[in-house]
Amino acid sequence: MIELILNDQKITTDLPPTTVLLDFLRRENKLTGTKEGCREGDCGACTVLLGELKNEKVFYKTINSCLVPIGDIHAKHVVTIEGLNQIELSPIQAAFVEEGGTQCGFCTPGFVISMTGYFINSVIQNVDDAIEALGGNICRCTGYTGIIRATQKSINVYEGLAPRKNHFDKLVTGKFIPEYFVSIAGELKSIKTQKRIVRNNQFMIGGGTDLYVQQWKDIVQSSADFISQENISKEILQTKNQIRIGGAATVQDIIESHVIYKHFPTLRNQLQLFGSLPIRNRATISGNLVNASPIGDLTNIFMALDAELHLKNGKKKRSLFLHEFYKGYKRLNKKENEIIEWITIPIPPKKFYFNYEKVSKRTHLDIASVNSTIAFTMSKNRINCVGLSAGGVAPVPLCLNKTCEYLNGKKVTCENIKSAALIAMDEISPISDARGSAEYKKLLLRQLIYSHFLMLFPKQLNAEELL
Ligand SMILES: Cc1cc2nc3c(=O)[nH]c(=O)nc-3n(C[C@H](O)[C@H](O)[C@H](O)COP(=O)(O)OP(=O)(O)OC[C@H]3O[C@@H](n4cnc5c(N)ncnc54)[C@H](O)[C@@H]3O)c2cc1C
Ligand code: FES
Ligand code: FES
Description:
Blueprint: E1 2-6, E2 9-13, H1 21-28, E3 47-54, E4 57-64, E5 77-79, H2 81-84, H3 91-98, H4 108-121, H5 127-133, H6 145-159, H7 167-173, H8 184-189, E6 203-205, H9 211-214, H10 216-220, E7 224-226, E8 236-238, E9 242-246, H11 251-256, H12 258-263, H13 267-270, H14 277-282, H15 285-291, H16 297-304, E10 308-313, E11 316-321, E12 326-328, E13 331-332, E14 339-346, E15 352-359, E16 370-379, E17 382-391, E18 398-399, H17 401-407, H18 414-427, H19 438-456, H20 463-466
Parallel strand pairs: 1-5, 6-7
Antiparallel strand pairs: 1-2, 3-4, 3-5, 8-9, 9-14, 10-11, 10-14, 12-13, 15-16, 16-17, 17-18
Helix pairs in contact: 3-6, 17-18, 18-19
The protein binds flavin-adenine dinucleotide and FE2/S2 (inorganic) cluster (FES) (2 copies).
């Protein structure tokens, strides 16, 4: 049985854990304020808040309810637009009305939920960050200007509130969130954790952002296992020689990790182009690697970083490098019941250079047409220990071994980079598809290799000489 708090009510359900949260809200609970748009994580009409108890405190994040199984909401707080409604409109709702931020209203609950999530998680707000948090919400009629005005107005209202003992208290007294939020931590504490369900089901669900897009009809009619019940860590730790990333860590966990930021300071911004915030809140790194898409962002990044996967199957454990994981298009060196428990990468040495590049048809909320990562060290002005990956140019995510071999020991000159790009173009076998012709993808990869070096050595290289 699944037990949760839905808005201000503690409820239970016997529905199969694979049931889609969106359907549970609209059909079972008649909470029709949460809208069904694309059912693919693209439009944000179905956005809800998910609150999870950690160290006596509830942490809220936005999620796309169309891609979340109810098996993952046990002992959590789900907040829909109905759960934000109070006797009067919240300052965010009022700002949408006053600033013309809503027209037909279909997208509005999703926007209000996302903006409420932003206020809950940001003690100091600014319009640019708030707009970033709304990045997964699409509106077909207002043209966004009214929504941006409503965002600014909500910030002004918050800043005008009298000081309180803490941010949460200010949100409650300012009516940004209803008063019942105060008692949620205590109520969640009283819900017992679920017993682990026996394994060997047809599906193993991580964040569900691939599975529930690709196969939701099959999944809801079958039984499934959940990574969330497998005792797999989400932690990101630094050991003596390695960075260890728990198999259940999400893209947002990577973005927020101090360990990752310390060694890869640019990655935080680069991963903002991964889906939207609600997708990043659920999408796991392991899911990205196992989905085996040749254009997966994390697959590409971790391949160049020489990542090692640590798999477990009951008590049996084994490790292998990510570049040994892909045997052919979506064919893996992995047994059916093996789970990624940890992913490790070596701690970057001194004088380490890293860059990730992604080209997609749309800048935001789009998967790459071609992507590439480079990682290397420099010794005596020469490139060393290169890892270079390319995605979207072969049936599997590729390590460009011949190009790496060429680059090792070379100086950073335009001539050497041009030669490396030519070798890379020869090393790949792209196909023509909706994302571009094979020839175009080869040219894209060449440009991405130029771009790596221009980003890393802006003073040393002349872009015009390369292009
Ligand atoms: C709107 C939208 C935007 C997206 N944008 C991007 C993007 O910009 N870049 C990108 O690369 N991808 C993107 N994706 C794809 C997707 O979000 C990622 O591939 C994500 O990392 C998948 O992780 P998940 O946990 O949701 O996987 P799931 O859907 O849960 O699972 C995918 C596969 O991985 C397996 N799996 C999951 N966890 C484990 C584990 N620990 N051990 C073994 N097997 C496991 C599952 O069994 C399944 O076979 C997007 C998806 C959507 C819907
Ligand atoms: S219905 Fe479009 S994101 Fe869920
Ligand atoms: S108000 Fe109509 S879709 Fe946004």
